[in-house]
Amino acid sequence: NAGVMQNPRHLVRRRGQEARLRCSPMKGHSHVYWYRQLPEEGLKFMVYLQKENIIDESGMPKERFSAEFPKEGPSILRIQQVVRGDSAAYFCASSPDHFDRGTEAFFGQGTRLTVV
Amino acid sequence: GENVEQHPSTLSVQEGDSAVIKCTYSDSASNYFPWYKQELGKGPQLIIDIRSNVGEKKDQRIAVTLNKTAKHFSLHITETQPEDSAVYFCAATTINTGGFKTIFGAGTRLFVKA
């Protein structure tokens, strides 16, 4: 059972370009979460998605950032018109379809975005 | 909003000693508390977790305790080894009507000196 797969692992973009980060959850998982980690800092929640639905996007910046999790294919985190402050590691996590009061989430290896 | 505080931010111990990391959370609805270990250049890996109906859980050299009344939980690593050196994150998960959300602490950088 492959783990959570993120690609690319490293992404370099010039200011003003678009960045697309992809996340394929573990098999059987339909909950996906995106987190951002700045250097030397903790993980900041961005968005929680289920298939074709955004459940909670309270951590997403209001502009330039969007996320989707289509019926088929990976979840995509899209950053338009990137700025230097977007440089960070972006982690995706997934959790199983059925959960009771809390369930573990598995993380991918992250995508390290560098804006030059 | 929900908040998880984690202390200390940096911890240095001698090999063989114990390490303790403490976290407090603000949302009384939180009922699942995972701990993650993150090595350099890698994603966080779950190392142990505890649910709100349990006060303590142990897995070999790692143990976690939970005090729901005081809203704090702790990670204990005994007989530390150099390979335990990493950043450790605590987290608190809260269930809501749409699903659940996990809030992470800021992390503790653990150094184990050989």
Count of alpha/pi helices of chain A = 0
Note the run of SSEs of chain B as H and E. Answer: EEEEEEEEEEE
Strand content of chain B: over 45%
The average pLDDT of chain B is 91
The main sheet of chain B comes to: 6 strands, mixed
Helix count of chain B equals: 0
Helicity level of chain A:
under 10%
> Which regions of chain B are unreliable across 5 or more consecutive residues at pLDDT < 50?
none
Using only CA atoms, what is the Rg of chain A? 14 Å
Structural class of chain B: mainly beta
- Kindly name the structural category of chain A: mainly beta
Query: Can you count the beta strands of chain B?
Result: 11
Approximate strand percentage of chain A: over 45%
Quaternary organization: heterodimer
Q: What would the average pLDDT of chain A be, to the nearest integer?
A: 90
Q: Largest inter-chain interface?
A: A-B, 26 and 27 residues
Number of strands of chain A: 11
Biggest beta sheet summary of chain A: 7 strands, mixed
Overall form of chain B: globular
As a whole number of angstroms, the C-alpha radius of gyration of chain B is 14 Å
Can you give a write-up of this model?
The complex is a heterodimer of chains A (116) and B (114). By secondary structure, chain A is mainly beta. Chain A has strands at 5-7, 10-13, 19-24, 29-37, 43-50, 53-56, 65-68, 75-79, 88-96, 106-107, 111-115. In chain A, strands 2, 4, 5, 6, 9, 10 and 11 form a 7-stranded mixed beta sheet that branches. Chain B has 114 residues and is mostly beta strands. Chain B contains no helices and 11 strands. Chain B has strands at residues 4-7, 10-14, 19-25, 30-38, 45-51, 56-59, 62-67, 72-77, 86-96, 99-104, 108-113. In chain B, strands 2, 4, 5, 9, 10 and 11 form a 6-stranded mixed beta sheet that branches. In chain B, strands 1-3-8-7-6 form a 5-stranded antiparallel beta sheet, with no helix packed on it. The radius of gyration of chain B is 14 Å and the shape is globular. The mean pLDDT of chain B is 91. Chains A and B meet through strand 4, strand 5 and strand 10 of A and strand 4, strand 5, strand 9 and strand 10 of B.
